[in-house]
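Reviewer 2 asked us to include a model.

Predict the structure of this chain.
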Amino acid sequence: MYFPIGFGGSGYWMVFFIIPMILGACASGAANRRLNKYAQVANDVGLTGAQAAANMLNFHEVSGVGIGTGGSGQDFYNPKDNTISLSSSYYSQASVTAIAVACHEAGHACQHAQGYGPIKFRTALVPVVNMVSNAWIFILLAGIIFNIVGLSYIAVIAFGLTLLFHLVTLPVEFNASTRAIKYLETLSLSDNQFKACKRILWSCAMTYVVAALISALQLIWVLLRTRRD
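Predicted model (structure tokens):
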């Protein structure tokens, strides 16, 4: 995250950086608390994360997806090799958190298999965003230092692509959770455990909402910085 240098006083600092940082910490903290809380609660159906993911793929009639283990906190779907990676505890753990997380990642696999538009768009953006996500600030600084307006505009466009990625991520994440909930509804979970799964998925989704908000605020700051200089 880039912090402003000598721009606009404390008000701008609060609006564009301090408040978003606090929101980000709160969203991440809430998600982690729920993940950790329900990781200690055995689910009613005795399914491990790996089993839940496999069953959900079958439920949505999706085949050919690999399910393996990753490092701690490494829960993701990789469209390049069509695999779901679950952290070792969730892979073999029959907890409420394990099935919620596993089914969410299986939701991404279902999106990929069924040609869901936003995930295809997001996947296409990944290499571009990886290239510009760290470069934009250096381009902006070069434009400011050498008073080259064109470079500042390039920085705005580069950071705009990062914001676009965050915005496209929102429907991808919410849709994956919706697919997970549709499958979880078919399990014989108690009402409390089903609601716990939904709370876990909602909390995790909110971290993406906050990330998009932070990116939007930073883009506004970049635009103001460019206009000022």
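The chain is about 70% helix and 5% strand. Residues 1-10 have pLDDT under 50 and may be disordered. We have added this to the supplementary material.
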